[in-house]
Specification:
Elements: E1 15-16, E2 23-28, E3 34-35, E4 40-43, E5 49-51, E6 62-64, E7 68-69, E8 81-93, E9 108-113, E10 116-118, E11 128-135, E12 142-146, E13 155-161, E14 173-176, E15 182-184, E16 193-195, E17 204-216, E18 226-229, E19 235-237, E20 242-243, E21 255-256, E22 260-264, E23 273-282
Parallel strand pairs: 8-10
Antiparallel strand pairs: 1-8, 2-8, 3-7, 4-5, 4-6, 6-8, 8-12, 9-10, 9-11, 11-12, 13-17, 14-15, 14-16, 16-17, 17-23, 18-19, 18-22, 20-21, 22-23
Length: 289
């Protein structure tokens, strides 16, 4: 494997396919991205090739067969096409306790960047790279079977038609409307999950309803915060539940509070993505007993 200093450099990635010639697949390249030869390639929400460090759907689809530079003057989405190998790629191994060892052979491994894999998902914040097939000939690198299936088992997704234009709402909270379509959540709405792609009206919306997902924050959030949707479908700190005792029937006093969608696994700033563990807890009392 070629030496490198960062994930933007070209790489001479060794490929094999269990003795067979590695398969070649292709996809149009996303706008204004550069994919170096020998690095992991993913697909964004529009099905266009992109470095895996960007927002992409599923696991890596393969290893770039050449340099694909869609940043030159006049670049457009899909203006060029990338080809990528599918098979066993020799990638860089993570470090210390996250490094893959011979004992991990046959297990899933996870993407750190577009040339490095690790043995853990870092609490669900890394997507699956593929199956670890053993250490490389150098005794330290990782041989990983990539691109043979669209891996993404960070949760369970459903598909609904989009009730409106949601092309700028990837990783926002959505609900099911009266027409059984996906609509953007408002304040106090009970969210069915987090939108994983970017559909236009009438197109298929992929919604993470269980597991781990990115979630766009409306304001800075801390690890462990309980989150709900704000008026625009972004993550906000949940309003703790309190009992409404304003009526005369104490036996039917309702619990008032935000509909908790889940717990923050990572911190996030305003309009940036954090990771959330979806739990759909409803209103949670201020003090549990």
């Amino acid at each position: 494997m070629a030496d490198y200093t960062d994930s933007t450099g070209k790489r001479d990635t060794t490929m094999s396919s269990g003795g067979a010639i590695p398969e070649v697949d292709s996809a149009p390249v996303a706008d204004n991205v550069y994919i170096p030869v020998g690095t992991l390639v993913g697909l964004d929400s529009a099905g266009r090739a992109t470095p895996v460090s960007a927002n992409w759907i599923g696991g890596p689809r393969g290893i770039a067969r050449a340099d694909y530079d869609n940043t030159v003057t006049g670049h457009t989405a899909g203006g060029i096409t990338a080809e990528f190998f599918r098979g066993i790629a020799q990638l860089d191994n993570s470090a210390t306790t996250d490094a893959l060892t011979a004992a991990d052979k046959g297990n899933l491994c996870y993407v750190v960047d577009n040339h490095t894999v690790a043995r853990t998902s870092a609490a669900g914040t890394r997507l699956e790279a593929g199956i670890f097939e053993g250490l490389g000939d150098d005794g330290t690198s990782a041989r990983v079977r990539v691109g043979t299936s669209p891996l993404n088992r960070a949760g369970f997704d459903i598909e609904l038609l989009a009730a409106a234009d949601l092309r700028t709402k990837q990783f926002f909270a959505v609900k099911v409307n009266s027409a059984a379509a996906a609509a953007l959540c408002g304040a106090g709405d009970f969210a069915c999950g987090i939108l994983q792609n970017a559909p236009n009206t009438g197109e298929v919306a992929k919604i993470r309803v269980f597991g781990i997902s990115k979630f766009i924050a409306a304001a800075a959030q801390t690890i462990g915060a309980q989150l709900e949707s704000d008026s625009s479908g972004k993550a906000k700190a949940s309003v703790k539940g309190v009992t409404d005792t304003s009526d005369t029937g104490g036996a039917t006093d309702p619990l008032l509070g935000g509909n908790v969608l889940g717990t923050a696994l990572t911190a996030g700033g305003t309009d940036t993505a954090l990771y959330i563990l979806l739990t759909h807890s409803g209103a949670i009392p201020t003090t549990a007993s």
